[in-house]
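From the shared-data thread, chain only:
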Amino acid sequence: MRDISRRYVIEPLRAQLRQGITPERLALTLALGLALGSFPVLGVTTALCAVVGVALRLNQPAIQMANYAAYPLQLALLVPFFQAGAWLLGAEPLPFSLAQVRAEIAADAWGSLGRYWEANLRAVAAWAVVAPPFVAATYLALRRALAPLALPRPDKAGAGEARAR
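Structure, as tokens:
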């Protein structure tokens, strides 16, 4: 397991740091990628991460790596976000048994689509409440964890002395 985590997590992060990204910038990129990757609308997180990455001038491979790593989190949080959104906005929670969803769609496909669309918007509202503190906490934790992986950067005085020799 250590070899796998070193090969697929530590070394790619270290490679990003070697290419000039600071630990702070990489931590922000990964924190946003994880948060956006848990956005409760299936099929939009890649585009969402790309747009946010371009707008904030973040490292695209790193934000997409975090986005894809968050996919299990997105699936695990989908129903809780739907339920939290209903609670937050005072709506009736939707049933999430497969049999009930199938029966609703069979009875009234367009009506069901509208109900689930509204429920999805409420889930986005719940995500919007949770995401900012998640990004802040994750950023702080990752910044601290990434600092030892960064190569020491020569300061301007040290670089000038090295050239003078």
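Confidence is low (pLDDT under 50) at residues 156-165.
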